[in-house]
Structures are given as C-alpha cells and as structure tokens.
Amino acid sequence: MKTEGNFLPAEWVRQSGVQLTWPDCETDWCDIIDEVVPVYEQMAREILKREKLLLVCRDRSLLPQFLQAENERLLIHQMPLNDTWARDHGALTVIEKGQPTLLNFRFNGWGMKFAACHDNQITPTLFANGAFRKGVPMLDFSYFTFEGGAIESNNEGVLLTTSECLLSKNRNEHLSKTDVEFFLKKVFDAQKVLWLDHGFLEGDDTDSHIDTLARFCSEKTIAYVKCDDKTDSHYQALQKMEEQLQTLTDQHDKPFQLVPLPFPEAIYDEDGQRLPATYANFLIVNGAVLLPVYGVPQDNEAVRIMQTLFPDREIVPINSVPLIKQHGSIHCISMQFPEGVI
C-alpha cells in the first residue's frame, strides 16, 4: 500500500466517518420526502454501527428521534443547503506524508445544471466550524470544478475517471484534457490517470460520473456495469466501455481483474422516464458494503457478486428506488473520510 507522498486513499481503507447531508422539504426531495427519509435513516443507522456520522442539515429539529439522542459517534452541523449530494459537495481527503489533508473544490451543480450556491459552501463552513479533527489542514482548490463521484482511486497511484464528465462544458472548459490530467496527477500525486470514453446511464445528471459505471474494489480489481441486452439503449456504449476497460493497466502496466455487475432491469418514473439504476454506486464502510438494490430480479446476483468481491465485509442491501427518482444512489449521497479526519 502506498504510504509516502500524496495519494488519494481508496474507499476500503479504514475510515473515521461518513458525511450525509439530510433531505428536507426545501430540497428537491420534497415531493417524495416520506419515501426518501427512510433510506437516509437506514444509511445513518448502518454507518453509526461502524464509525462516525458527520451529519449536515438545515435544521436539526427535523431529524428523526434516534438522531436527536446523544451519541459520541454522531456530529451534527446546521447550515443552509441546496440539496443532499454529499459525494459531490463534500471534501476529498488525500494522505500527505502519512497524514490526512482535506481538499476543497468548487461544486457548481454538475456543470451549472442546478443551483449550488449553498452546497458549494458546505465544506468550507464545516472546516471553519471545527467539524474535522484539530490540526487537519484543508487546501483550497475552489478555482477548479470537481466532484467526488468523478474519480476512483486504486490506493496505489492510479485514478479512474470519465472524459464525458471531466471534459464537459461549464466545468473547466478552459482546460484541455492534458491540463486536467496534469492537475489530477499533481493534486493526487498519481502515476496514472485512466480515462473511460464510453458508458452512460439514462437519467443521469452528472455527465457519466465514474461511480455509476466502474469502481475499484481492490488495487487490481475493477467492478463495472455490463449490459447483455442488445435491444437496450445502453448496450453499445457499455460494450465499448468494457472493451476499453480490457485495455487499461495498473501502475505496473498489468491488466486489471474485471468483474461485471448485472444491469438492473429498466425502472421508470411516473412520466415514463428511465431512472439511472446501477449496482456500481455502492458505499464501502468499515466492515461492510452498503449496496443499492431496486426490487428487481438482478438484486440477488448483485449481492452475491459483492460478497465475492468483499468476502470479509457484510453486504447490506438498501432499497434505493427513492434515490434514483432524483437520479442518484447510495454513493452519491455520501462521502467517506479516512482515519484521522473526524
């Protein structure tokens, strides 16, 4: 495991806690608030069993009773917010000479698709209010638009991302691919940046965040979304993504072990729009993997595959149909922090 220099720790390293930003009726969840709050409650309970929960909310009086009680693992911070996608407005953490350092980027609502004026201030406000352990520094990169869902790390100096997202308009359009790659290598001390040029999910607002398509599960293993139905609108793009994954190599120029994840059968909203269901949007926590499930036949196979990928962790299925109604899932609503941060 990489221990020197700066690097972006993988999600499976020991964590100090996870951030959630709580939904309320002033967020886009308002119309389905009774559906989505139980999902957040289950997430909160599972996190608190294992590590600290950094909870951002507009008003703590709106929280359920079990989050009102005293709990040494629970840290609540009130502040204005637009929405609840902590993966993308939360701080990223790098390890610098063995110690954690927070990174603050600009969040602009996935290329100015949605208002983010309050969400963009959540990380600086948490830092100013002492939410993180004393002595943990934060570096400001607010001149660079970036989201946590756009990057994956294998913990050994290899980053995985998508060109559709990082090269999209209204993020860092003044920068070339070479510029963006140089920035990522410098900030994360990465040896390699691997770009996927194919793959998408209908209903996705993020411009193909990597965490909806392909995820590192170990230094040498990538789990990825695979579609076998030739009549499905995703088939060709995901086939091309698979072919590209087969060409990628790690920091030692060795190919990765590739593990296909099942493709959930199509789920639609009340207007007939397809929703972006994916099993790739799981969250790794201490001792467990929180896995989105959708009440479809592929759920059981997804659980089985996850157990083979993480044999020493409990696989916890979480009904994520309410989350995909707002076009995200479990990983999108959470941000983990390695040991020493919270």
TrEMBL record:
Lineage: Bacteria, Pseudomonadati, Bacteroidota, Bacteroidia, Marinilabiliales
Domain of life: Bacteria
Pfam families: PAD_porph
UniProt entry tagged with the keyword Hydrolase: yes
Organism: Mangrovibacterium marinum
Gene Ontology biological process: putrescine biosynthetic process
UniProt xrefs under SUPFAM superfamilies: Pentein (SSF55909)
Name of this chain's protein: Agmatine deiminase
Record key words, sorted: Hydrolase
Gene Ontology molecular function terms on file: agmatine deiminase activity; protein-arginine deiminase activity
